[in-house]
Amino acid sequence: MDFPSVLSDPATFSETQTQLVCRSRAAQSCTSSQFSVTNTDDFIWRLVKGCIQIGFVPDIGNAVNTVPADRVATVTALAGILPLQPSTDPVVLHLEGSPRITFNFLLSSLARYGYAIQQCEYLVWRAALERGAVADNALFPLLHFVLDDLPTSTRAPALDDSNTVALLQQSGEKITSAGGITLELLGLYLSWLVRAGFLPPPTGVLPLPLLGGQAVRAVGRSGL
User: Fold this and answer.
1) Can you say whether the dihedral through the CA atoms of 180, 72, 35, 60 is positive or negative?
2) Structural element, H or E, at residue 24
3) Structurally, how many domains does the chain consist of?
4) For residue 121, what pLDDT is reported?
């Protein structure tokens, strides 16, 4: 869809102003699926780095409802110019990761790309983090959260994304859902984080994808 031409059409823009208000409720917005650029001051990537730093990952089977940032932007833009129905009632557009991964999938995938990590029970992981949680650990600013009861606090409810799917079908976009994180896409994200200097390079059988473009540098809020 040509968003600039739609938004520049006075008739269309005027119509969308008077039609219903759509509320987009996104899952956790992750990295761009096209450019792999991400915000390193993010719980997921801090968890990934913190686990790599101590060499352990927790056994947590909870789902991670995370959606690529560009998919969130697409749905948000469509919600403003293609209301589902002429009504004054707001429509909620849930963004549900598809496929919806788990923390175990996310963290165990690090070993497949060559990071020296070992999966263990949460209490064992918490003890290891307490021993290794020095100021340069990526999880240091979040110790109050991750040391409390991470298996309970990271539970994510299933969302009804039928309105979002209907919106995407109406728009003619090639995508049929908000999208999710696959092993291949995770490799792209890790590759960008390595090139940005946020993560150390791994040494494994499954190599990280090569990225084009110029070198980048990522700086989070704390500089980690």
Assistant:
1) negative
2) strand 22-25
3) 1
4) 97
